[in-house]
Amino acid sequence: MEWERKLAQWRAAGLIDQETAERIQAFETRQPKKRKLPLLLIIGLIFFALAVFSFIAANWQAIPAIAKVVMVVLLMWIFYVIAYFSEKKHFGHPIIFRILGYLMFGASLVVTGQTFHLGTGSSIVPWAMFIAAIAHFFIWHHAAFTVLGFISGISILVSAAPGLGLIEWLLFIAVTLVWFFLAKDGPVMIFSWLLLLGSGFLVWSIWDIDSPLVPIWTLFALVLLLLLIPKDKQKLLAPLYLIVGGIQLIVFLAIRGESDMAFVELTMPESIALAVAGIAVLALAYFRERRLMWLGVLGFVGFMLFDETAIALAIVAELTALAYLIIAQRQDQPLTLGFVYFIVVQFVIYVIYAWERLDMSLFFLIGAILLFVLSGIAWWLNRKKEGAVT
């Protein structure tokens, strides 16, 4: 076996003594051996399953209603039982059977609703799948159920968006917050955070609000989570906050530059309130996670939207991109996000202000010159810092 060969190599190289080698050998010998299913048996099972499903699909209309429900529920439990013995007897991959059981659970809900005309067209099935995915995650702690929970959560937001009520919206936020705080894994926190961000956008439909500033209000509300999570989780989520904030600023720049936004209501009191909230976010980030101080710039978007030329938004986007790159360079932080943000800002500005006025060759020439100048600045700052260290 592989571990025996390694053990002999370590013993011959003098990395471990004879007593340690014997203890490792005794430990590995006691471990249960993973059993592999024969290849022909696996192929046979696959073809048998395809034959069974093909027969069921061909005779689906002729099957009695109660038999359809019993059949799907039985399949669900069969997959869960196989997953149990797969883990117990160490054969196959238990997670695959559990995912199949989870999918059969959703299929049983759909079949039951369609068979007995219970009406599963709203958010009933997505809600059940969402809760089931979270329960599966806390029982088996596998990343697959994190992805399935996120997909189910998105399904709730999409399917319920036209007629979502306040109670259901608050319930979704409560369940997602519980998932966010109880989970210890980074991907779970990121996916649940994205679901909270998406739930904020439903304010447009719940209260019939035409304000374009709802995405910024949602992001500012999520900043309050920094008061309730430990420092390591703050560092994990900080890039996500910055990415979403940068995307929002670019989207506002693109929309304001290409339209008059006559389809929304923009009021000065709300712009003032957003500016105050931006200052509060700036102060909170200063004491909790200083990288998020960049989000304070979004608080003044309300004022900048009154500028029909979008010049103010363009200047702010350009300055934040350059300032972020310079500060990140001086602090030896990764520059990837900053460069991507800078390039996207240049592209949006070109499309808004220069696309119809410049020849295509001149368009790319100016872009190349800007990138060359920026690269030269970054090289000069890096050389200056290396010279100072030397």
Automatic annotation (TrEMBL):
<feature type="transmembrane region" description="Helical">
    <location>
        <begin position="267"/>
        <end position="287"/>
    </location>
</feature>
<feature type="transmembrane region" description="Helical">
    <location>
        <begin position="37"/>
        <end position="56"/>
    </location>
</feature>
<feature type="transmembrane region" description="Helical">
    <location>
        <begin position="214"/>
        <end position="230"/>
    </location>
</feature>
<feature type="transmembrane region" description="Helical">
    <location>
        <begin position="361"/>
        <end position="381"/>
    </location>
</feature>
<keyword id="KW-0472">Membrane</keyword>
<feature type="transmembrane region" description="Helical">
    <location>
        <begin position="293"/>
        <end position="326"/>
    </location>
</feature>
<dbReference type="Pfam" id="PF09925">
    <property type="entry name" value="DUF2157"/>
</dbReference>
<feature type="transmembrane region" description="Helical">
    <location>
        <begin position="62"/>
        <end position="83"/>
    </location>
</feature>
<feature type="domain" description="DUF2157">
    <location>
        <begin position="9"/>
        <end position="136"/>
    </location>
</feature>
<feature type="transmembrane region" description="Helical">
    <location>
        <begin position="163"/>
        <end position="182"/>
    </location>
</feature>
<feature type="transmembrane region" description="Helical">
    <location>
        <begin position="124"/>
        <end position="151"/>
    </location>
</feature>
<protein>
    <recommendedName>
        <fullName>DUF2157 domain-containing protein</fullName>
    </recommendedName>
</protein>
<keyword id="KW-1133">Transmembrane helix</keyword>
<feature type="transmembrane region" description="Helical">
    <location>
        <begin position="188"/>
        <end position="207"/>
    </location>
</feature>
<feature type="transmembrane region" description="Helical">
    <location>
        <begin position="236"/>
        <end position="255"/>
    </location>
</feature>
<feature type="transmembrane region" description="Helical">
    <location>
        <begin position="338"/>
        <end position="355"/>
    </location>
</feature>
<dbReference type="InterPro" id="IPR018677">
    <property type="entry name" value="DUF2157"/>
</dbReference>
<feature type="transmembrane region" description="Helical">
    <location>
        <begin position="95"/>
        <end position="118"/>
    </location>
</feature>
<keyword id="KW-0812">Transmembrane</keyword>
